[in-house]
């Protein structure tokens, strides 16, 4: 078999060799605790400062102390929402969208159910775009915090977060964005926005896993989630994961250096993939907002077949992708994102996400285009919803995408 | 990705009997697009002999759904209708060398399609659809929300402990405790509103005392002859005791302790000792698989045991519990229920 093709970069990315190399000394010689007074610690402290500045540059933060390192996107999201609810006395409502990552949605479910918080989940349209009117209607001076993701992990659809942040501020609400899928993939310049808090995760941009950061705009009131030592200026206790932070710093530098050209190339490859699939295979369509989305992500919904079966066949052909299918998650419901977009069940179950990276090549995309038609045809042959003549006559009419 | 057995992979990648059967005279269709599972089973039954001569399937579903459908056709071809209707979903899972707990519903779908096809052939009415539903709550024993809710409602359950006794949910690694508590609280709340239980009885989220932990009561195991050595384990780590037919390692019928004839006359203490010894003798089998089983307590018809080991083995354990239950019931001469409990 040929070398495996990895097109699941929204799940996680390969740690770049450069990043590994930057990290290694901090496991061995430079193992000191940055808080210590002796020489072992001080060198680590310097490297951490450098990493913080690299990340600051990537997201365009005005000050480096606006960055709080955490254990990942999930912790950043939990910290941000809980802190906002605590500092916004007298406000107990949260606005978010129906298509957020579970790291927001299941937290909101919990807050709603057990902590008396009122949650507004703003719907999206068939292309995954936010219903701004519904957002406007939900805003009031009871809202403590608004949290909208920057880019959707399944469809890549981008929300206009800077505008959304201004709307939140008009009502005195704080604004948080889960930018886990956006950081490193789209230009971000926080100092020119009104965003108060932003979550990011290292392993989505070729850094190590188990590390993330919360951007907290200077002057934004804050309550720590984890209490203990004075690390991160008392905002996130616990000895810093120095090697990982240094790795993320390096990953941020790499992303910033080549983002412009990487994005052009990835978008071209993604378009080639989408067009090839749609042309060769009937009864499938691209989901998400074609005009504003991540350059690396595409989710294509194949009708009348189920996603896990497609993934298993792709895997056998050496191609790694992922699906919004119910079966891979163990529940019977297909992806909440595709359902929120009103994608019919017939197609939502057969949705496959391909997420490219800076390393993806044209040859890899062409290989996918080579194997997909047979995989889809083979599975449709086995499907009770498919007949020799094609879809059942009442098959769907994709009015969207 | 799922941990599928080689047999599941084989039947997914090279399915037998896939496609339409034009001259079928019995067709069963179950599932729906919305739940992501659908199976159309087509049979050609010889009306003179009632023998299923051909079987084909069309499946919309994941890898294990396709493999289960294909396995089903292989299992029933050549059988008579009355033989085929005895087939259970466990037979399909066994044929495939097991399915992940989250995927057991695929084998259930196979069984349902078969029942539907048989009913279509014989012209009988179908039983109500009992397709599993809801999120899978307890991964150890494969118990979903729908089943738990039914148990809570029919038996008016108001404690977590009872939910575990009735459904097994939460009896393994206990990591589903939080969703289980939520579900119990929600269903009880609805039952109060419907007037089926009193508000004072209802379980309120977070109100549970510490998980009811049974302390071992120190059964003394009298001197016993050295436990018969279990035969060398085959290298494959999976597949320990399936309930039927009981493999040699767990087959204790001939073991010196079992004295079924005299059993009915045993005092509770003697029964407990007998049970403790039976379980003691099964431990090597569990340990060979990296797990363990211990007797925790006995109360009437309930035998409480603690199971340890990798949670991935729990499905296996669930099947094995059936085996233990049989052995003990046999030895005591009355039927008992073996329940796993969390051990402190
Ligand atoms: C949009 C989004 N938010 C949050 C997360 C969680 O991040 P982490 O894995 O770092 O906790 C992910 C990763 O899957 C994500 O895609």
Any overview of this molecule?
The complex is a heterodimer of chains A (401) and B (344). Chain A is of the alpha/beta class and 401 residues long. Chain A folds into 2 domains: 5-10 and 259-382, Aspartate Aminotransferase, domain 1 (Alpha-Beta Complex); 17-255, Type I PLP-dependent aspartate aminotransferase-like (Major domain) (Aspartate Aminotransferase, domain 2, 3-Layer(aba) Sandwich). In chain A, 38% of the residues lie in helices and 14% in strands. Chain A is built from 11 helices and 15 strands. Chain A has helices at residues 17-23, 39-59, 73-87, 102-114, 132-138, 161-170, 242-280, 307-316, 336-340, 345-348, 362-382; strands at 5-6, 67-70, 93-97, 118-122, 143-147, 174-178, 197-201, 212-216, 284-286, 297-302, 319-320, 322-323, 351-355, 386-387, 390-391. In chain A, the strands form 4 sheets. A 7-stranded mixed sheet of chain A has the order 2-8-7-6-5-3-4, with helices on both faces. A 4-stranded antiparallel sheet of chain A has the order 9-10-13-12. In chain A, strands 1-11 form a two-stranded parallel ribbon. The longest helix of chain A has 39 residues, at 242-280. Chain A is globular, with a radius of gyration of 22 Å. With 344 residues, chain B is of the alpha+beta class. Chain B has 3 domains: 6-122, Sufe protein. Chain: A, CATH 3.90.1010.10; 133-211, no CATH class; 215-344, 2-Layer Sandwich (GMP Synthetase, Chain A, domain 3), CATH 3.30.300.130. Helices cover 39% and strands 15% of the residues of chain B. Chain B has 11 helices and 8 strands. In chain B, the strands form 3 sheets. Chain B has a 3-stranded antiparallel sheet with strand order 1-2-3. In chain B, strands 6-7-8 form a 3-stranded mixed sheet. Chain B has a two-stranded antiparallel sheet with strand order 4-5. The longest helix of chain B is centred in the last third of the chain and has 21 residues, at 268-288. The two termini of chain B are 33 Å apart. The A-B interface holds A 113-114, 304-309, 311-313, 315-316, 325-328, 330-332, 334, 345-346, 349, 381-385 and B 1, 9, 12-13, 15, 18-19, 29, 33-40, 57-63, 65-66, 102-103, 133-136, 139, 182, 205-206. Bound molecules: pyridoxal-5'-phosphate. Pyridoxal-5'-phosphate binds at residues 72-74, 101, 103, 149, 153, 178, 180-181, 201, 212 of chain A.
